[in-house]
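Data availability (excerpt). The following record was deposited with the supplementary files.
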Amino acid sequence: SALDLVRIPTPPVEAAIALSVVFLAWEIVKDDESQLTYRYPVMVSSSFGLLHGFGFAAVLRDIGLPQTELPTALLFFNVGVEVGQILFVLALLAGFFVLRPLLVRLLWADSDKSVHWSSLTVPASYVIGGLASYWMIDRVAGFWA
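Predicted structure:
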């Protein structure tokens, strides 16, 4: 797509990306092993990767790629995306470990319970799913604008 071998309009791709985030948030909240993500993790992650790749390709088309250094530009763009994702996850983990003592005092002031990261997955999924729902509705409404 970044090379214009396949051309998909950006608004439907962005709406589908948002829908994929809503779908995954829903699957995390339900936490049911009969769900599609549990049964076919490779298929789900591959299709989401392809879909999100089309979104990144649209950005690359918009900013332009240096045609003389195309392989290098694509490689470093992808490496930059992956490094950014790793840094984001590390920042979230660091924030959790810093805030964990505060969470224990606020949520379980009268007990010796500990806060495990998994206790935050459902609330985080609702927040992320809600934001992705808004983004999806916004993108779909833009089809007719």
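Summary of structural features: DSSP finds five helices and no strands in the chain.
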